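Budget justification aside, the reviewers requested a transparent look at the raw inputs and outputs of the sequence design task funded under Objective 1. We therefore reproduce one unedited record. The lines immediately below are the structure tokens for a 84-residue chain.
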């Protein structure tokens, strides 16, 4: 597995944990352990996503830097178009 694929997989895994914790919190919003877990994985996800986007470009609209890149993100392969 190449580094791009490994980094994307990490972003996806962290996003999954964050979503899963968020779904739990929808039913138990006052659970301090779940809140702490969500906050931890939210931070880790943001860091991993930023690291990926700095190296390989944005994953979605919110990662686009117009001042730096214009609308050039459509010229790169989409995350699912890259082969290992």
């Amino acid at each position: 597995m190449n580094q791009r694929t490994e980094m994307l997989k990490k972003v996806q895994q962290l996003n999954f944990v964050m979503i899963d914790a968020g779904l739990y919190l929808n039913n138990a919003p006052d659970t301090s352990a779940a809140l702490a877990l969500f906050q931890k994985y939210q931070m880790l996800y943001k860091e991993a996503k930023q690291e990926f986007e700095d190296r390989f470009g944005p994953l979605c609209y919110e990662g686009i830097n117009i001042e730096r890149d214009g609308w050039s993100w459509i010229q790169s392969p989409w995350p699912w178009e890259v082969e290992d």
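Helices lie at 3-27, 32-56, 66-69. The chain has three helices and no strands. Computational costs for records of this kind are itemized in the attached budget.
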